[in-house]
Amino acid sequence: MNERMSRADVAVIGGGVIGLACALELARRGVSVCVLERDRVGRGCSYGNAGWLTPSLAVPLAAPGQWRKALRWLLDPESPFYIRPRADLKLVSWLIGFLAASRQGQFERGAEALVGLCRASVDAWEEFAKIPDETSFGFVRDGLLSIFETPKALDQAKSAAEMTARFGVPFEVWTGDDVRDREPAVQGGLVGGIFFPREGSCEPYSAVRALADAARQAGVEVLEHAEVLDATVFSGKVRSLRTTLGHVAADEFVLAAGAWSGSLGACLGLRLPMLGAKGYSLLVPPLDPHPQRSLYLAERKIAINPHVESLRISGTLELVGEDLTVNMRRLEGIINGARGMLQLGNPLGEIEVWRGLRPCLPDGMPVIGRTRKSPNLWLATGHQMTGLKTAPGTGQLLADLMCGQTPSFNPDPFRADRYC
Ligand SMILES: Cc1cc2nc3c(=O)[nH]c(=O)nc-3n(C[C@H](O)[C@H](O)[C@H](O)COP(=O)(O)OP(=O)(O)OC[C@H]3O[C@@H](n4cnc5c(N)ncnc54)[C@H](O)[C@@H]3O)c2cc1C
């Protein structure tokens, strides 16, 4: 290790969409910021996600009735959600926390907060996409169509849509014929759809790179290949970080290391019950006809994002911790699921296959705020399936709190001290 020593007002650990959004907002307020990323920026979970900016789906992971599904998932390795049965105390205590958080009242309070954060974030992404200097990241706001194959699932989804409508997300119910007429790319037996006209989408890695460029232009020092190895904590405060590129000192520290925030938090004296939930995405050549908009094959839990020159297919959620191995059975499950409703090429002609770890806390809500453990240690992590769609709002809320300004969003549902 060389003896390089950096100094900034704030050191952000993790150069994913969340760390970069926080760094950008802090820099816009005149704070000197350094981002430490062990790989290249945006190569973690922010790289190949579905690219959806969809408030209608910005809800806590812990939802009512999940415990019944969880029992089924334990037994079915082909299910869209999967928990491999194993004697793992961390997993057991995570599941207990998850089930305890799945009450209707808690779920609705969390959903209201997340939908609000997400709506403001989608507006912010839209504004960001208009800046002429920013590299295009394929932002479009042409809605999300959720498609249903059974009347029961459609009815349940209508109730969920009525809840998010109360939080400002409009929707329309389409018949099966409406779906077939307006979205000729869809085939197979379907009973109808729910269309959310204000939802957006983008190309996720381009979005995170555009954010990194904007952060650099705002004065943020972005250090790539700078892995945080350890921290010096003295009298309850974090003093400096030891990285593969030398030591970094700062007045304040932000932990935004996604699914790795649990293990990294341990060297900062935190016990954060973080689990990574693995998901996959595939990029394939465009279809003929290509979908007009983002499609959610709701009962198969498969997300379709039509980019201009490719189609992104994403899905599955497997609670794994930090294991990134590819499970071919689950990958095939996504491909077969998508084939049931879209005319995919045969052979598929994959351009890219990717997997990532969603950072998940037991109650399925992000933590954004100061820890109780150290007065100069802040958290911005645990965004589960919503990190891209809530990143600008997360950066804004964290910067408000760190700069002592009136918070733009109610910070209580995101309080860090509920865990730390
Ligand atoms: C299949 C799939 C589909 C998804 N679809 C969507 C979607 O459509 N919309 C949406 O909003 N969200 C979606 N998500 C979730 C979204 O991708 C995540 O919520 C988001 O990327 C989390 O961002 P992050 O910055 O917290 O984590 P990451 O992007 O993982 O960033 C954390 C960074 O920390 C770095 N790091 C880790 N350890 C260290 C260390 N010791 N030192 C320095 N750096 C370190 C990592 O290298 C990484 O770059 C999806 C996820 C998956 C898997």
Would you write up a description of this structure?
With 420 residues, the protein is α/β, with parallel strands linked by helices. It has a domain at 65-88 and 139-198 and 275-360: D-Amino Acid Oxidase, subunit A, domain 2 (D-Amino Acid Oxidase, Chain A, domain 2, 2-Layer Sandwich). The chain has 10 helices and 19 strands. The protein has helices at 17-28, 66-75, 89-100, 104-130, 151-166, 176-182, 204-217, 261-266, 328-339, 387-402; strands at 5-13, 33-36, 52-53, 81-82, 144-148, 172-175, 192-196, 200-201, 221-223, 228-234, 237-243, 246-255, 275-284, 294-297, 302-306, 311-319, 352-360, 367-370, 377-381. The strands form 3 sheets. Strands 4, 5, 6, 7, 13, 14, 15, 16 and 17 form a 9-stranded mixed β-sheet that branches. Strands 1, 2, 9, 10, 11, 12, 18 and 19 form an 8-stranded mixed β-sheet that branches. Strands 3-8 form a two-stranded antiparallel ribbon. Strand 14 (294-297) and strand 15 (302-306) form a beta hairpin. The longest helix has 27 residues, at 104-130. The chain starts with a strand and ends in an 18-residue tail after the last helix. The mean pLDDT is 94. Bound molecules: flavin-adenine dinucleotide. Flavin-adenine dinucleotide binds at residues 13-19, 36-39, 43-46, 49-52, 227-228, 256-260, 264, 279-281, 314, 356, 358-359, 381, 383-389.
Concise overview:
The chain is α/β, with parallel strands linked by helices and 420 residues long. The chain is 31% helix and 25% strand. The protein has helices at 17-28, 66-75, 89-100, 104-130, 151-166, 176-182, 204-217, 261-266, 328-339, 387-402; strands at 5-13, 33-36, 52-53, 81-82, 144-148, 172-175, 192-196, 200-201, 221-223, 228-234, 237-243, 246-255, 275-284, 294-297, 302-306, 311-319, 352-360, 367-370, 377-381.
